[in-house]
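Researcher: I'd like a structural prediction for the single chain below. Treat it as a standalone chain; there are no partners to consider.
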Amino acid sequence: MTDAATSSSPSPATLRAWHAGLAQAMTCVAEPVFCERLIEALRNLVPIESVLLGLECKGLAPRPLYQCGIPAEYREALIERYYARGYLLDPFCLAMENGLAEGFYHLSEIAPDDFFNSEYYRTNYLKCGSVEDAHFIVDLGGQRKVSLCVYQGRSGARFSEAELALLRTTYPLVRELMRQFDERGGLVRCLDGRGSASLRGGAPAGLNQQIREAFMNFGSDRLTEREREIAHLLLRGHSVKSSAKVLEISPETVRMHRKNLYTKLEISSQAELFALFIDWLTA
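Model: Treating it as a single chain, here is the predicted structure.
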């Protein structure tokens, strides 16, 4: 073990608090209050500013289960708007729909290469008081996953490498507790009594198809199919180079299509493209 790793190891007092918090979470694993107790336990190990727990069912839009620490002025943007349409551009939602394995992931491990310069990041992270997040992804079976997202940034602080490593070590425990939370009915109770039937079945079209249709219909009266594909990638946070790799075309061709789609939509920036797309979704 390196000196850096040793110096960042939890103290005995921290471990006692973590274990005591775990015990509290275990005693109420069948109730909605379990979410709060689990977060309290994790906060004994690592400072966590805000939390969002969501249910991801294959072929369906994600659904909120629990949140804490999100300031009131940001709550609508982070929760209501995200679950209404923002998930269409969310890197974690898209990765899970495309088969992301369960585990612990930091945003930088999942997001496209230019995501941190994207308008989605500016709008749904920076303007909402957050700079980053990390997710515990737990497979519940039946094409269902829960995503426990821990946010950081309102204080200006980011997760350190040591803190992320510590959170990663808790994943096996978090996974087992989340599975028990589901098996014992706590998750269903988080859905305000709407019952387990609301967690089964798929939408008429799978979520991947819905996402593709949303992007391919955007600007369909003016843009070619290739231009719409490039708009999709740019909105998600892909650079020209990354877009070219995904589409197996040259960066120069991507730039040409980007210029053409900007001209046709009468815009000159990604910010305007993002605003136009959100307005179109709302309409």
